[in-house]
Design a protein that fits this description.
Its EC number is 2.1.1.107. The chain is of the alpha/beta class and 268 residues long. It is built from nine helices and twelve strands.
């Protein structure tokens, strides 16, 4: 039988000098970090990490590891995306094992595809390790099933963040009965999101959960409706990072929490 240490060593045998690994750190809870991601952060020479990588995960990075913070928040990009990509290439060309650590999953609203494309075009060897995306991790940590037989047969992830220079929301049809919608980065556009969904036929009392810092010790959850979404955010001063989970599955939360009271973190 292979023990944990041997398995971790096996996972990182191909993490060679001059390589870049794009790794998902999950929603923040250390227990949701994959074994591969954990092994990689232990052997990397340098990590380039985002704002959404939690303190608990950063605490596992060896003190000798070089670090670069390239975090972004709504309307405030500390490091332009093109500069991040250039930095990754420069670090790889120095012969370092470069760990690009991203909250959630690199390929779900994490711009991992863009970074991978630029790295490969520059001839840099790469590998992608997926992470638990925020929708799955935050829903599980708050007892909201994203799908449920007879209530939600599908789930859709949508970004509420507008690309710089773009105006208005995605014009595609969002609302469908028996579907759960999860909006990433949607706080600032919550009023417009709610209005769009109601214009497409969603009931004004359709349940919505606002999950702030999901899966982390200071997680907060507010349950509201589409009609009251914007006022709830304003009343409680909700802050990013936060997800909006929209659909009838949100109404199941209180029944599930009654059986699992430890999951009722900061319920309102």
């Amino acid at each position: 039988m292979v023990n944990g240490g041997q398995f971790a060593s096996h996972l990182t045998l191909d993490f060679l000098p001059g390589h870049v690994w794009l790794v998902g750190a999950g929603p923040g809870d250390l227990s949701m970090l994959s074994m591969g991601a954990y092994a990689a952060l232990k052997v990397a020479d340098v990590i380039v990490y985002d704002r959404l990588v939690s303190d608990a995960i950063l605490a596992e990075v060896p003190v000798t590891t070089e670090r670069y913070y390239v975090g972004k928040s709504a309307g405030h990009h500390s490091v332009p995306q093109a500069q991040i990509e250039t930095k990754l290439i420069e670090l790889a060309e120095r012969g370092l094992r470069v760990l690009r650590l991203k909250g959630g999953d690199p390929f779900v609203f994490g711009r991992g595809g863009e970074e991978l494309m630029h790295l490969l075009e520059a001839g840099v060897p790469c590998k992608v390790l997926p992470g638990i995306t925020a929708a799955a991790g935050c829903a599980a940590s708050t007892s909201i099933p994203l799908t449920y037989r007879g209530i939600a047969q599908s789930c859709r992830f949508i970004t509420g963040h507008l690309q710089e220079g773009k105006e208005g929301l995605d014009l595609s049809q969002w609302y469908q009965p028996s579907q759960t919608l999860v909006f990433y980065m949607g706080l600032a556009q919550a009023g417009a999101i709610a209005a769009k969904l109601m214009s497409e036929g969603a009931a004004s009392d359709l349940p919505v959960a606002i999950v702030e810092r999901g899966s982390q010790p200071d997680q907060k959850v507010w349950e509201t409706t589409l009609a009251q979404l914007e006022s709830t955010i304003r009343q409680h001063g909700c802050q990013s990072p936060a997800l909006l989970i929209v659909g009838e599955v949100v109404a199941l939360r209180q029944k599930l929490v009654a059986c699992l009271p430890e999951m009722a973190t900061a319920a309102v």
